[in-house]
């Protein structure tokens, strides 16, 4: 539990993008919409063109790349319905 009594997000999504990537912008909009509807998910956007650095152990040459709880899940576009299924399985596993 955090200091306010709320539980930490069960799922941490990190999206790695570049400024000049059209697909990155599309994936960003879709993920931001998705995350806004979910309470148990945190979202972080890292833009490599703005000099933002990746955490240790995470690297990406291809953008966009989607990392979930420190693991690479997707490179490029992906199906949001399949993503949601995987997220739900992850949340159910974490809460069990």
Please tell me about this protein's structure.
The chain is α+β, with helices and mostly antiparallel strands. The protein contains two helices and four strands, in the order βαβββα. It has a four-stranded mixed β-sheet. A hairpin with a 2-residue loop joins strand 3 and strand 4 (71-75). It is globular, with a radius of gyration of 14 Å.
For the biggest β-sheet, the strand order reads 2-1-3-4
Structural class: alpha+beta
State the end-to-end CA separation. 17 Å
Helix content estimate:
25-40%
Instruction: Give the H and E element order.
Output: EHEEEH
Secondary-structure topology with pairs:
Layout: E1 11-17, H1 22-36, E2 41-47, E3 65-68, E4 71-75, H2 80-95
Parallel strand pairs: 1-2
Antiparallel strand pairs: 1-3, 3-4
